[in-house]
Amino acid sequence: AGHGDSPPSDAVATEQGRVALLDRVLQELALRRPVLVSPSMSGRFAVPFLLARGARLAAFVPIAPAGTRGHAAERFRQLQTPTLILYGDGDAGLGPRALQSLRHLPRHQVAVLRGAGHACYVDRPQDFHRALLAFLRQLG
C-alpha cells in the first residue's frame, strides 16, 4: 500500500491490518495450506502473517524480505513452517539483513543465488526456479 500507484490505506497501516488482509485474500481464494512466496516489500505483509498464522502455510519462501526486524528471535524459533530463505549474493542490504532474523526459524534452508542482486528472481530466473522447485519437491 502506498507503493507504485496504490493509494495509502489505513487498513494496512498496522501489522494486524496487514495480517487480516492477507488472511482474507487466502480465504477468498480458498487456498488451504499454500506456499507463501514473498519478495522484498511484500515481507511487511508476509512476515507478520507467518508469525501470526504460520500453521496455515505449507511453506514460506522469503526473498530478501522487508519487515523482519523488530521481531524477537524467540518468536521465529517457535514456528515450524518449512522455509526457504532466498537472496542474491549481490544484495548487500535486505538479503543478509533478513537472514539475521529468519535464521532463527527451526525448519529453514538458505539459497544464495550467485551473480544476482536484490531481485534475484529477475537476475537469475533459472537458478531461482531450480532452488524453488527443489524446495517444493522436498515438501512432498
From TrEMBL:
<dbReference type="InterPro" id="IPR029058">
    <property type="entry name" value="AB_hydrolase_fold"/>
</dbReference>
<protein>
    <submittedName>
        <fullName>ABHEA protein</fullName>
    </submittedName>
</protein>
<keyword id="KW-0963">Cytoplasm</keyword>
<dbReference type="GO" id="GO:0005737">
    <property type="term" value="C:cytoplasm"/>
</dbReference>
